[in-house]
Amino acid sequence: QVQLVESGGGLVQAGGSLRLSCGDSGRTVSRYHMHWFRQAPGKEREFVAAVSRSGIITRYAETVKGRFTISRDSTKNTVYLQMNTLKPEDTAVYYCAADSQVYLSPSPSASAMDYWGEGTLVTVSS
User: Fold this and answer.
1) Which of 16, 45, 90, 104 is packed most tightly, with the most Cβ within 10 A?
2) How many whole angstroms separate alpha carbon 5 and alpha carbon 96?
3) What pLDDT digit, counting tens, does each position of 68-103 carry?
4) CA 121 remoteness from chain centre
């Protein structure tokens, strides 16, 4: 049973930074493409960032490009999302997801994910 667990969420002022982590008890993170999605109140879940199984390829939503960085540490079986220059509109529940497809999609979608974590809340105050 794959269990992805996110951590690192919290309350931060606009302009601040947070680092989210996602891991699991098995080796899911090292075997899958890994993604971060987010869902704000009243909105649909949206793609934030992805990193390929190899760690070489990354994808970002335009809204976070240049501010967020996704990375993975296979030795720790963990994927990270470093979030800098946070804005109030970044407030959402952030979800980690694993994708078993052969290639990392240029436009990852929530419906293509195989496993999800339960999410961690990020609140950015103005």
Assistant:
1) 90
2) 8
3) 999 999 888 999 999 999 999 999 999 999 999 999
4) 12
Distances (CA, A) of 119 to 4, 55, 66, 116: 9, 22, 23, 8
What DSSP letter does each residue of 11-80 carry, written as one string?
A: EEETT--EEEEEEESSSHHHHSEEEEEEE-TTS--EEEEEE-TTS--EEE-TTTTTTEEEEEETTTTEEE
Q: Rounded distance, CA 42 to CA 44, Å? A: 7
Residue 121 φ then ψ, to 5° = -85, 130
Pairing of strands 10-13, 120-125: parallel
Other CB atoms within 10 Å distance of the CB of residue 72: 21
